[in-house]
Design a protein that fits this description.
2 domains, alpha+beta, globular
Length: 85
């Protein structure tokens, strides 16, 4: 699931345009972003952060990179694979 710092309507449009294979949630009041500390300090904008959360509800991975989306996918797959066995 993806979370954006904008309204749901904007997230829905972005989701449709990019044909994303996962849900995208608008978080205009930024409560989710604050809870996961996924905002840039001082300016408060959302950071590009990938989390892998285990079945025990604990964060297994928190990865930040603003430009390399391939790295997000690779790191997430590594974390999921490590918890599989």
């Amino acid at each position: 699931m993806g979370v954006t710092g904008g309204p749901q309507e904007k997230s829905d449009n972005f989701h449709r345009i990019l044909d994303l294979p996962y849900p995208l949630v608008g978080n205009k009041d930024r409560t989710i972003l604050k809870a996961y500390e996924a905002r840039w300090p001082l300016i408060g904008l959302a950071r590009r952060t990938t989390y892998v959360i285990g079945t025990d509800r604990k964060i297994q991975l928190a990865f930040n990179d603003e430009t390399n989306m391939t790295a997000h996918a690779a790191r997430a797959l590594e974390a999921v694979s490590a918890t599989d066995g």
